Amino acid sequence: METKLTLDQPIIYQIKVSGCLSANWSDWIEEMTVTDEREAGGSSVTTLTGTFDQAALIGLLRRLYYLGLPLMSVNCIQQD
Question: Where are the domains of the chain?
């Protein structure tokens, strides 16, 4: 039986943005795994992986937007 998603259900998400997060943002991303990669063209891609409910996910996406980091993808990795 498949579990129904709810707004307050914690889910593991993987978020990719174009660009690199500086180390001084580590205080609000300590709950996440952060990896930086270089694409073939030399541009940076930051991947954030962590467990969030929908409200926390929207808050994180807003922060990334205000930092000027273009959103590349948001993927649901696993439901708890």
Answer: 11-79
